[in-house]
UniProtKB/TrEMBL annotation:
Species of provenance: Virgisporangium aurantiacum
Gene3D superfamilies, alphabetized: P-loop containing nucleotide triphosphate hydrolases
Single GO term (MF): ATP binding
Residues of the ATPase domain: 6-208
Classification via SUPFAM superfamilies: P-loop containing nucleoside triphosphate hydrolases
Domain of life: Bacteria
Secretion signal span: none
InterPro entries in UniProt: ATPase_dom, DUF234, P-loop_NTPase
Domain called DUF234: residue spans: 314-403
Pfam families registered for this protein in UniProt: ATPase_2 (PF01637), DUF234 (PF03008)
Lineage: Bacteria, Bacillati, Actinomycetota, Actinomycetes, Micromonosporales
Protein name: ArsR family transcriptional regulator
Amino acid sequence: MAIVGRTAELAELNAAWARAAGGHPELAVVWGRRRIGKTFLLSHFAGDKRAVYFTATRQDTDDRQLRRFAGALREQLEEDVRDLVPETFPTWEAALRFVAGLARTEPLLVVLDEAPRLTGGRADFADTVSAVWENHVRNQRLMLVITGSAVAVMEQMLGPQGGLHRRAGVERRMDPFPLAEARAFQPSLAPETFVEAYAACGGYPLHLSRWSPGLSTNDNLRELAFTPGGLLLRDAPDILSEDLDWRGGYERVLTAMAGGARRRSRIAGRAQQRIDYTLDRLRRAGYVRTVRSLGSTGSPDPLYEIADHYLAYWFRVLRDDADLIEGGQGPAVQRRTAGRWQSHLAQVFEAAARDHAGRLVAAGDLPPDTVVGRWWKDETVEIDVLGLAGDHPVLVGECRWQAGPLTVRDLGDLQRRAAHLPEPGGTALTYAFWSRGGPDASLGGHPEVRTFTPADLL
């Protein structure tokens, strides 16, 4: 099966392999949450190489992991090496020194998948790798790739206090695909339908590949999310459990955010706990993003939101009723959560519109120094998409996940909100709308208006 996307990741890995094959050992670290495609990417990369691919398992002792690793060496390497591999290794240092020896004359790729599981979720495995790399790896033709789905642990390994700090030649975090790149997984879907699929599945390859082009959005959701054991229903807890200890109140904080709490005080109030550590951990692990009003005239207080579209969908639409769905009441839950689904769709569409505005800058449709974000002030005025060149607005945009056409009344409303911004500079101000319905005839006489549909986002 051909790999979709990930061209930058593959190019970086291939360059590292070329250096390793030339006698310059390479250490690579690839991390990202489950279902993101790490294993598929690295299996594809290893396919035509002398390679050993080992996946650590949960709740195994070190002794068992080391015995399994020795077995993987015997199974995956050529016959003249198999007889050299012992039944097991006493330590991971001994195992790593052994594979370094196997790469003295021929290039060898070793992938240790889910490495944080090798030490029960602690980061000290990195110290072992660092010690071996420092003292026993010199001119071997070795490429060692360490991967993990426990994002916080992996970033601790790479951080200032971590054993792999500035050791790896390749450090690559893999995130869900953005909307435009994810399109490759479902190229036959109508643009509007693909936005709906993406809103539910996020940029996860497995989720998107399970979406059936022959079914309607509602039928796909019924099968994947509102049926007992459905992929979208059961996957979020598995993804989160790899990285988060639920005793820290992470689920309560994410649930509060999914329910509409965006400011720190409101999140704490709904979660009924202190959230400073919890919120910081979620942010560092990539589950939550901090959003600030663009420019100097907006609100000084940041907002917080779930950064992953699939997880946001699960928390907003599925989480509270998961037991009812598992009990066979999925169709009723799907009907009663339709409003929450539409609100989630609108937020995903809005985020995609800001990404699209950034691509307009890259394409030269806006001044090259334009930065794109959102703007709000005192919870009374909010602008979905704002482009600033210096301190001056060049683009003010609104997102509408609505089927009806846009009218001059919509333009007037956007202009009234734009009046709260600084005066435009020398560049004419563009008013932009992203919607499903497009403009009606009344907007035809307004050259300052640009309109975009889901097809433009893709």
